[in-house]
Automatic annotation (TrEMBL), chain B:
Belongs to the binding-protein-dependent transport system permease family. This is Sugar ABC transporter permease. It is a multi-pass membrane protein. Pfam families: BPD_transp_1 (PF00528). It comes from Paenibacillus cookii.
Amino acid sequence: MHAMKIKEAGADRLFTIVNYCVLTLVMLIVLYPLVYVVSASFSSSSAVLSGRVWLWPVEPTLDGYRAVFKNTMVVRGFMNTIFYTVAGTGINLLFTVLAAYPLSRGDFRGRNMFMLLFVFTMMFSGGLIPTYLLVKDLGMIDTVWSMLIPGALSVWNVIIMRTYFQTTIPGELLEASQLDGCSDFRFLLRIVLPLSGPILAVIALFYAVGHWNQYFNAMIFLKRAELYPLQLILRDILVQNEINIDMLGDAKTAAARQGLRELLKYSLIVVTSVPLLVVYPFVQKFFVKGVMIGSLKG
Amino acid sequence: MTKLNLWKDITRKWQLYALFALPLIYIIVFKYVPMYGAQIAFKDFNVTKGITGSPWVGFAQFERFFHSHEFWRLLRNTLVVSFYALVASFPFPIILALGLNYVKNERFKKSVQMITYAPYFISLVVLVGLLLQFLDPRTGLVNTLLGWFGLGPYHFMAQASWFKSIYVWSHVWQNTGFACIIYLAALSGIDPALHEAAVMDGATKVQRMRHIDLPGILPIAVILLILNTGQMLETGFEKILLMQNPLNLRTSEVIDTYVYKVGLVSQAMNFSYATAIGLFKAVIGFILLIIVNQTAKQLKQESLW
């Protein structure tokens, strides 16, 4: 940006050195716990228990991962989570586009009123209990619908997408298409959506992260264990420390079981977190767009 | 005449209304019906009689809450933990953005960004799981480290006095990178001519940061701080719930977790009482938001000069 090939003055040099050092330190503080978890998950249980793991795996094994993938609860939870994330995000995108496009049109009569109706729900809500009673009355308790429908739309994301449509789809394009007899359905499908790739990607990621990491709704709405998403199973194991003895089947002695129990936690953390951590760098370059639009609020 | 035109206009654009129907129904059913349902806060709700059929009791549920011995503790915990999180998490994204802005090596910059974003994508369950693993008194890394210096072991998660700091600083660890995006964007919007002129005048980087970058992002920082204040009471309920255990409840029980327990967990489920407590918080939050939005609006106008 600044075309300065001149050697930096003393004060600036010092600043640059300090700056790089501080940023490196920040990076290490964020990275170290993550690296530690990955290394611990590949280490032997005795090494983890005795605190011999620092940076790299010690006495590498796959015992933890074997125990994770042998467990039917975890595997089923994983499958459920994939389903909730894919189906839920699909519904989210559909609802968000359907709401955002009309609201982005200046000639959509009543849009200020509808906007107010939507935005008010961001500021005030009926609360946990009335929402629970509603979901119950709709017969959604203990069904997959309770994971997909109550959170079908985030008004915040509608605002982001509406603003994106308003600022990037030229009005002339609409006028020209209307002269050619293009309907609103067609215009949305053939013109608007193909021009909105980046914002759709960011919004889809935000929704998907929400679904993948969701545990609370599952905890209150689901009763049958076969519908549990991964996070709920994870909560039992990591937070409540409730581990099924069958999961530790291979371990004979109490000490070995204790070791495998810890190892299993690290492996589970890795298995659960890796999918999102692999995906987000691909969408990273669009984050700025999504976050900026959101904060400006149109 | 005008009515007729309006009708014509709407029918001509019926497709827009057809598109909008589904989300509109969703908002009415899942957002406004619960608001209607919140009237059970003023009733003695009975499942068989339903929401409308249950008898009115006025403010009895609220009075019960205000007079209960839990009230002051819940209110204090909620306010303290929200305010602590708000203040502690404010400066770090700004500092990170200011630093990153002076990194010329693109690859290094991208790496720092990518790595600091990562925790944002980790679930709360995993985050709290990590805290429990690292802070474990017997096998945790932190206590192993402290052991070298002859300290501890401390049972951090079981001590009420530690709860708030663990909550807040793990929040900072998780969110600083992502929160920094907006400041980086604001910094890239600063006119490069300002920097060029400053360089001509022999300003150092620290001086440019102090006199160009900081004033440049100040408006957005103030607005964000104000908006976050409005959302203050909304943060962290799901994480707090995960971090709670019987030993730290004294400082970790907040209004939202209490509503959840009274309404959906306890043996004597009391929907009306729980809804009243939730409504009390929703109203406080709403008032806070209105005040704060008014302030932001005025500031926005002022900052335009």
